[in-house]
Amino acid sequence: MTSYRISQVAERCGLPATTLRFYEDQGLLAPRRTPSGYRLYGDETVERLKFIKAAKRVGLSLDDIREILPVWDHGGCPEVRDVLRPLIEARLADTDEHVGELRAFAAHLTRARQKLDAIAPGAGPCSSSCEFVDSEEPQLLQITDAPVGRPGPVEGGVRVACSLDGDGQAGRVEEWRRLLSETIDHVRLANGVRVSLPMHTAGRVAELAAAELQCCPFFEFSLQLGGERLHLEVRGPAEAAGLIEEYFVSP
After folding, report:
1. pTM value > 0.70
2. Do the Cβ atoms of 169 and 251 come closer than 8 Å?
3. Out of 38, 75, 156, 221, which could bridge 143 as a Cys pair, Cβ 3.0 to 4.6 Å?
């Protein structure tokens, strides 16, 4: 039987070693140990990690994956399909709900832009009588990874791990930094940060936040349109403070 050290498995699977240790803590992996305490993995671990990555790509939580793995270990494809299908149906329903929210928010932004475009060049000072200011209440869009009827992912003591590999995580940080280069201001919160951006960034912010939840479900995002700015709030457990600083505070 072929045996691999943790660094070798990490390289073969495109995952950081920290993620493998996290999966072990979560009961998804059970490596053997050498007499000196080093972790050893077999070919079956590589196959299991491929399955875990595939399940993460369709938005399944680690709790879902933990329940599926015994079926994957001992059953055939039909049995795995029967367990996976209702979970994916639930994710589809949740995604459809988010799509509806994003479309409504996009329509709200379009109306706001139309009101701004209608302001005459010689108009006086902006005040509460302005059609844009005195129109609709700000719309709030919450984006989380929690399926309907379940608690959100931001809770005390949540373990923090990103399922992206090293290159993928670096690329995601770069995407956020490009977007946040337009930051107007930011305020640090007790468990996160509030970033103000131009309104035209709303679509990209929502898209990137939804993508982020696929690999980092411990984040919680909210978008709010107020005045002429889009306000993005990012929150997470205490263990995510370093990631929030790295990802969302414009350098």
Report:
1. no
2. no
3. 221
Amino acid at 59: G
**Residue 235 pairs with which residues in a beta bridge?**
192, 220
Q: What are the extents of the domains in the chain? A: 6-57, 85-248
Q: Where on the phi/psi map is residue 237: left (φ > 0), alpha (ψ -120 to 50), or beta? A: beta
Q: Rounded to an integer, what is the distance from CA 232 to the centroid of its chain?
A: 14
Third-level CATH fold of 6-57: Multidrug-efflux Transporter Regulator; Chain: A; Domain 2 (1.10.1660)
Task: Report CA dihedral (212, 229, 120, 129) to the nearest 10 degrees.
Answer: 130
In tens digits, what is the pLDDT along the chain, a chain of 251 residues? 678 888 888 888 887 888 888 888 888 898 888 888 888 988 888 899 989 888 887 777 788 888 899 999 888 888 999 999 998 888 778 777 767 777 777 777 777 777 777 777 777 776 666 665 555 554 455 554 443 333 333 334 445 667 777 677 778 888 888 888 888 888 888 888 998 888 888 888 888 888 888 778 888 888 887 667 888 899 888 777 777 877 787 55
Tokens of 156: 């005390």
14 conformational bin, left if phi > 0, alpha if psi -120 to 50, beta if neither: left
The phi-psi region of residue 194 (left if phi > 0; otherwise alpha if psi is between -120 and 50; otherwise beta) is: beta
Which pair of structure tokens corresponds to residue 4? 């691999």
Could you tell me the two tokens for 198? 């131009």
Tokens 């349109």 label which residue? 225
